[in-house]
Amino acid sequence: MASRKHGTLYTGVTNDLARRVHEHREKAESGFTRRYDVTRLVYYETSETALEAIAREKRLKRWPREWNIQAIEAVNPEWLDLYEDLNR
Fold first, then answer.
1. What is the pLDDT of residue 84?
2. pLDDT value at position 87?
3. Which of 31, 33, 45, 88 is 20 to 30 Å from the Cα of 11, by its Cα?
């Protein structure tokens, strides 16, 4: 998730992406995403198991910021908010 193009980035893992993004957008909980207004879903991946998802999240969090930006721009060069696509 991102605050804007090339803005603050947030990486997380969930078993219900649409619900979790909605919570971030509504600022349902205090924390990082609320503090930095991180409300745009700009990139996501799916995994077969929770353990695989957690391992991938940890790898992404260790990446240099530029690598994360490149991953986003490879699939979403305009940094469009992908949230609405989840509900189709």
1. 87
2. 72
3. 88
The reply to whether 10 falls in a domain is: no
The boundaries of the domain holding residue 79 are: 17-83
Long-range residue pairs from 36-39, CB within 8 A, at least 24 positions apart, any chain:
36/3, 36/8, 36/10, 37/3, 37/8, 38/1, 38/2, 38/3, 38/7, 38/8, 38/9, 38/10, 39/1, 39/3
Please, are residues 12 and 57 in contact by the beta-carbon 8 Å criterion?
Answer: yes
Q: State pLDDT tens for residues 22-33.
A: 999 998 888 999
| Amino acid present at 21 | V
DSSP 9-72: B-----S-HHHHHHHHHTT-S-SHHHHTT--B-------SSHHHHHHHHHHHHHS-HHHHHHHH
- First vs last Cα of the chain: how many Å apart? 19
